[in-house]
From TrEMBL:
UniProt membrane topology term: Single-pass type I membrane protein
Top-level taxon: Eukaryota
Keywords, alphabetical: Cell membrane, Disulfide bond, Glycoprotein, Immunoglobulin domain, Membrane, Receptor, Signal, Transmembrane, Transmembrane helix
Gene Ontology CC terms, in alphabetical order: external side of plasma membrane
UniProt protein name: Butyrophilin-like protein 2
Subcellular location(s) of the protein: Cell membrane
One BP annotation, GO: cellular response to lipopolysaccharide
Species of provenance: Channa argus (Northern snakehead)
Keyword Transmembrane: yes
SMART domains (UniProt xref): IG, IGv
Amino acid sequence: MKMFVVVLVLLQVSQHALGVEVYEGVESVLLPCQVNTSVSTVVWSREDLPHFTVHLRDESSDIYEDQNHYYWSRTSMRVDALQTGDLSLTLRKPTIRDSGKYLCTVRKFGQDQIRTGVQLLVTEPPVWPWVLAASLVLLVLLVAVGVIVYKNYIVTVTEGVKSVLLPFKTTANLAGDVTVKWRCLGASYKTVHVFGKGLNNEFKKHSSYRGRTEMKKDPLETGDLSLILKNPVCEDTGVYTCIIYRDGDILAQKTLKLLVKRTALVC
């Protein structure tokens, strides 16, 4: 009975000041959006991918013509959403690629009236809950595997070192006009590094990361998109996501956590 309770708790969606966090593999996740005014149209979109239409609803029905194909058959809203002001979006079968900042834009008579941002973070489920259902021998083996996986997705470093490497290697096809974006969800949403043809990388970065990030040589040819962060400080602690996209389509994505410690103490 105890094992059953633990698994249920792990599958719950947690909401906090920064947004919504959920494990990959859950049935659905709710992105909240509430307004206290009459609405004629609501548009859900992605801030990091401005040309994405995630979901569109007007006074008559849902409109799917402009919806990005990645979200086909995976989004829905309440039937009475525009009447009640509950414009929350249900996203089915969320994956790590769905992580990002979603915008709920309310329109009235063709004019944008209200815009609400919801940060969604989809992470891989931990290994250890499933170990509870295994035998004693499998328990030892799976715990060992769980520790390896855990370490692969959490990078720990002490403040004062010259640099830290956030690893990411991919086998995705990176030919063509590809953009690579590293971002951080810490105390706020920040762009850490941008790589692509014709992009002013330093201009696009958050000021706290300017002059402190770089990638290895020829990342699109080698598939090694790892990020080097120089002179890491406690304020750099957070969840880092690397997104690779081309023509509005996400090709690959990785999320990991950076923990910067001050000497022997965590910042």
